C-alpha cells in the first residue's frame, strides 16, 4: 500500500491506496485528519493512521523506502522527512466525538464525467466537506478541533455490477425498466456490493475496531451498518445525510442538503 497528501477544496487529505487478497482492485481510503499535517502538533485526538503503512515491512527497508510509500509523520518537504514508527494507538479523550466515516462505491459516470443520472459525484464531495468540518467538543461550547474521519472508496462500480453492465442497464432504463429490473435482466442481483474490504480498511485505520475508536457512519443505507457490525466493527451512530437515490423531491432532502440548496439559491 501507499499514502500521499492531496490538497482538496476542503483542505488537505491523505489518500491511501490498498492492495488486497480478495480481488485485484486498488481500493482507497481518503483520510481527513488535517491535525496530522499541522505544524503545531497539538492535536488532542489520536491520529488516524494505517497500521500496515506504519509497520516495518522488512529488515532492509530504508528510511527512503518508508518515505516513498508514505510512512512519514507531519509534513513532507525538501527539508523535513520524518519516517513514522509502528503505531501505539491511544484512546481519545471522552469529549472527542467518534470519527465520521463514509463508505462510497465508485461511480465513473457520476464522478468523472458529471452524469446527472445519479448524484454520486456530489455525494463524494459532500462527504469530504462534511467530514472536514471543525468538531465542537462537548466539554466546552467554544473549543473545536479540526474535522476527522475517512471516506472509504470501494472499486465496485454500478453497485458492484461493473461499468459495462451499468452502461447496458442505463439503456434498459431508457426503454422503461427501473434500476432493479435492469440489473436483474442482465443476470445480476439488484445490488452486488460487499463491505468486507471496507471493514478490513477501517480496521487497519483503527476505526470501529476494538483496538481503535468507534465510528459514526454517514449513510441512508442500513445494510452498510449491518455489514460492518457483522464484521465485528462498532458503529456508534448512523447519520442520515443525503437524499435517497432517485428522490428528486426537495421535501425528502436532509438538513445538510437543504443548507446546500439554500446556499446555491442565494449565490
Ligand atoms: N447499477 C446501477 N448502479 C448505480 C446507478 N446509480 C448509481 N449507481 C451506483 O450506486 C453506487 C452508489 O452507492 P453508495 O455511494 O455506496 O451509496 P448508497 O448505496 O446510495 O447509500 P448511501 O450510503 O445512503 O448514499 C455506485 O457504485 C454507483 O455507480 C444505477 O442507475 N444503476
> β content, as a range?
15-25%
What sort of overall outline do the alpha carbons produce when their principal axes are compared? globular
Biggest sheet layout: 7 strands, mixed
The overall average pLDDT, rounded, is 88
Q: Look up the CATH topology.
A: Rossmann fold
Please identify the top-level CATH class.
Answer: Alpha Beta
Count of alpha/pi helices? 9
- Report the count of strand segments: 11
Number of domains: 1
According to CATH, the homologous superfamily is: GTP cyclohydrolase II
Strand ordering within the main sheet: 1-2-3-9-6-10-11
Helix content: 25-40%
Looking at the overall shape, the CATH architecture is: 3-Layer(aba) Sandwich
Distance between the termini: 42 Å
Query: If you compute it from the alpha carbons, what radius of gyration comes out, rounded to the nearest whole angstrom?
Result: 20 Å
Q: Briefly note the structural class of the backbone.
A: alpha/beta
Please give a quick description of this structure.
By secondary structure, the chain is an alpha/beta fold. Helix content is 29%, strand content 19%. The chain has a single domain (2-156, 193-266), classed as GTP cyclohydrolase II (Rossmann fold), CATH 3.40.50.
What does this structure look like?
With 267 residues, this protein is α/β, with parallel strands linked by helices. The protein has one domain: GTP cyclohydrolase II (Rossmann fold). It is 29% helix and 19% strand. It has nine helices and eleven strands. It has helices spanning 51-54, 63-69, 108-111, 120-132, 163-174, 179-185, 196-204, 222-230, 255-266; strands spanning 2-8, 11-18, 27-32, 72-73, 82-83, 100-105, 135-136, 144-145, 149-154, 215-218, 235-239. The strands form three sheets. Strands 1-2-3-9-6-10-11 form a seven-stranded mixed sheet, with helices on both faces. It has a two-stranded antiparallel ribbon with strand order 4-5. The chain has a two-stranded antiparallel sheet with strand order 7-8. α8 links the parallel β10 and β11. The longest helix is centred in the middle third of the chain and has 13 residues, at 120-132. The chain is globular and about 60 Å long. The relative contact order is 0.14. Residues 245-267 have low confidence and may be disordered. Bound molecules: guanosine-5'-triphosphate. This is GTP cyclohydrolase II. Its EC number is 3.5.4.25. Residues 97-239 form the GTP cyclohydrolase II domain.
Amino acid at each position: 500500500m501507499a499514502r500521499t497528501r492531496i490538497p482538496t477544496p476542503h483542505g488537505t487529505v491523505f489518500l491511501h491506496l490498498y492492495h488486497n487478497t480478495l480481488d485485484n482492485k486498488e481500493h482507497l481510503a481518503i483520510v481527513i485528519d488535517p491535525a496530522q499535517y499541522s505544524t503545531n502538533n497539538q492535536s488532542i485526538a489520536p491520529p488516524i493512521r494505517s497500521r500496515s503503512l506504519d509497520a516495518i515491512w522488512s529488515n532492509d527497508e530504508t528510511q527512503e523506502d518508508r518515505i516513498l510509500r508514505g510512512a512519514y509523520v507531519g509534513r513532507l518537504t525538501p527539508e523535513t522527512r520524518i519516517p513514522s514508527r509502528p503505531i501505539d494507538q491511544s484512546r481519545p479523550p471522552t469529549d472527542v466525538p467518534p470519527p465520521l466515516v463514509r463508505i462510497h462505491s465508485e461511480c465513473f459516470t457520476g464522478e468523472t464525467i458529471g452524469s446527472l443520472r445519479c448524484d454520486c459525484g456530489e455525494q463524494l464531495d459532500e462527504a469530504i466537506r462534511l467530514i472536514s468540518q471543525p468538531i465542537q467538543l462537548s466539554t466546552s461550547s467554544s473549543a473545536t478541533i479540526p474535522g476527522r474521519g475517512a471516506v472509504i472508496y470501494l472499486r465496485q462500480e454500478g453497485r458492484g455490477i461493473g461499468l459495462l453492465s451499468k452502461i447496458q442497464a442505463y439503456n434498459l432504463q431508457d426503454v422503461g425498466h427501473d434500476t432493479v429490473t435492469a440489473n436483474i435482466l442482465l443476470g445480476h442481483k439488484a445490488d452486488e456490493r460487499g463491505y468486507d474490504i471496507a471493514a478490513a480498511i477501517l480496521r487497519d485505520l483503527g476505526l470501529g475496531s476494538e483496538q481503535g475508536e468507534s465510528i459514526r457512519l454517514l449513510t441512508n443505507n442500513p445494510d452498510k451498518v449491518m455489514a460492518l457490525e457483522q464484521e465485528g466493527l462498532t458503529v456508534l451512530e448512523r447519520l442520515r445525510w443525503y437524499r435517497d437515490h432517485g428522490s428528486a423531491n426537495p421535501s425528502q432532502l436532509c438538513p445538510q442538503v437543504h443548507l446546500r440548496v439554500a446556499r446555491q439559491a442565494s449565490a
